[in-house]
Structure formats: C-alpha cells, structure tokens
Amino acid sequence: MFEFLNAPEIACFEGEEDAAAAAAQQQQQSSAPEKKFSQDDVNKFLAEDRRKHQEKLKTLEQSYEKRLEDKALDAEGRQQLEVELEDLRSQFRTKEQQAEHEKKQQAAEFTAKLTEATKSAEKYQGLYTSFVIDASIKEAAKQNEAFNEEQIAGLLRPSTKLQEVLGEDGKPTGEYAPMTKFQDVDAEGNPIETLRTPAEAVKRMKELPHQWGNLFRANVVSGVGQGAATGGVTPGQGAQVDVSKLSPEQYRKIRAENPALLGLRPRK
CA dist 151 to 106, 129, 138, Å? Predict the structure, then answer.
C-alpha cells in the first residue's frame, strides 16, 4: 500500500503586502516631526499671492487702456469701458488711496459744475449787456431823428460798456449803466476822447455835421430829386447838404457861397 504525502501549504491573503507597506509608511510619518509654518512664511505666501493678483489686474488694466485708444469707439462704448476701468483700478488701491481718489473725483466734479455754471452766467450776462447797450443807443438815435438806428448802434456799440454808476459822493452805487467812449473835438477843433451816456453821445454826433451830419434828418437839406431848390433853402444850425443829390453846378455854387453846408471850412 502506497502512502501519499501532501506538500506543505502557507496560508496568505491577497493584498496583505500592500497593507503592510502602507502601515509601515504611516508609522514612519507619524513618527516624523510635524512641519509648522511661521508667520513670516504665511506673510510670504500672502505677498506672493497678492503680487500675482496685482500682475493680473495690471495686465487687464493695460488691455482696457489699449481698447480706449481705439478712435472708432463710440461715445457709449467708451463711457462703459471707462467705468469698468475705474472699477478695476479701485481693486488695487489701499483704503487710504481710494479715499484720496474719491476726494479728488468730488473736487473735479465740483470744479466742472462750477465752470459750467460760470460760463452759463457769463453767457446770459453778455446777452443782457448787449440788449441794454443796443436798446439805449437805438432809443437815443430815435430821439435824435437818425435815419437808421441800427447804423448808429453799429458805430457806438464797440466803444460802449456797462459801468458802475457813481453817486454824488463819488462812491459806487452798485448800479450799472452804459457809457460810451466818444471821439470828440474841443472848441478849437482838436480831437479828444470823452465819456458820455449813449444819449449824450448820439446828441453830440448830431452836433458835428461835418462828421455825422448825413446820419440825421435835421442835418440834411433836400437836394435835387426832393422838390427843393438848394439856393432857396435856409438850413437850420449845423445843417448839411446831401451832396449825392446835387448837380455839379449846385455843388460848385454852394462850395463857393456856403461851404459849411458841405462840411467844409470857409476859405480864408
């Protein structure tokens, strides 16, 4: 009879080697000292993170600025980009910088509004001044029987300004009135400059027929074409003949007999 001997067997389970290796690694890690970060390390991590964030914002800012350089960009699109760019820039300002920026913005807005209000006030002041000056000159021209009120206004307007009225004591009253720098002549006929109201200036123009006589009805004597014979006319004081309506014979006769009617000085 034969006897069979069985081979020895070793009992093992699948995965036991891996489990043993993991357990050994865990034991090694648990026995190793735990690594700790100092406050300096944390600060470095935060600074590096902030630096990277700032770089991204700076790159994005440059992108916005480049887009704003596009001349084809319409007003609405440009305004939207400017708003977005401002929001972006506010992200990398400190609280103190943001407060200072807002302060400057408020000052700029106030200055812009003040400038606009000043321009508007100056515009309406100019319109009011022009109205007062023109009205005063034209009224004076009408009172002195000028042929063309607008013509008189055109002559005196450039030299007429609103000036503060002085009281009897020589002090400013706070009221303003138009005054004209008038190119006048003295008693000897020498040119002088006088300061007059528009009414006084227009009246003085009427009194100088050799310069302004043809602008006023009272200073022009009818000539040919208006049914009056020049030789039979007795003009009033300071009157002047309308030369354009005289014949050559009439002109020579008046020049010889009464040159003052032509604005000429008598021959000596």
Answer: 50, 19, 9
Dist. CA 184–CA 137, nearest whole Å = 17
Token couple for 202: 């227009």
Separation in Å, CA 85 to CA 77, 93, 144:
12, 13, 67
Q: At residue 243, what is the residue type? A: V
Task: Give every strand in the sheet of 160-166, ordered side by side.
Answer: 160-166, 172-185, 191-196
pLDDT in tens, the chain (268 residues): 445 455 555 555 455 566 666 666 666 655 555 667 777 777 777 777 777 777 777 787 788 778 878 877 788 888 887 887 787 777 767 778 777 877 888 888 888 888 888 888 888 888 999 999 999 999 999 999 998 999 999 999 999 999 988 888 888 888 899 999 999 988 888 899 999 999 999 999 988 888 887 888 876 655 433 433 344 344 444 455 666 666 777 767 777 766 666 666 655 5
Q: Token pair for residue 240?
A: 């002047």
How many residues comprise the chain? 268
213 by Cβ neighbours in 10 Å (0-12 / 13-18 / 19+) ranks as buried
d(Cα 29, Cα 114) in Å, to the nearest integer? 73
Break the chain down into helix, strand, coil percent, rounded to 5: 60, 10, 25
Reported as half-sphere exposure (CB side, CA atoms, 13 A), residue 124 has a value of: 5
- Which tokens go with 145? 């029987």
Residue spans of the domains in the chain: they are 63-92, 127-262
CA distance between the termini of the chain = 188
CA distance 77 to 70: 11
**Long-range contact list for 113-118, CB < 8 A, 24+ apart?**
none
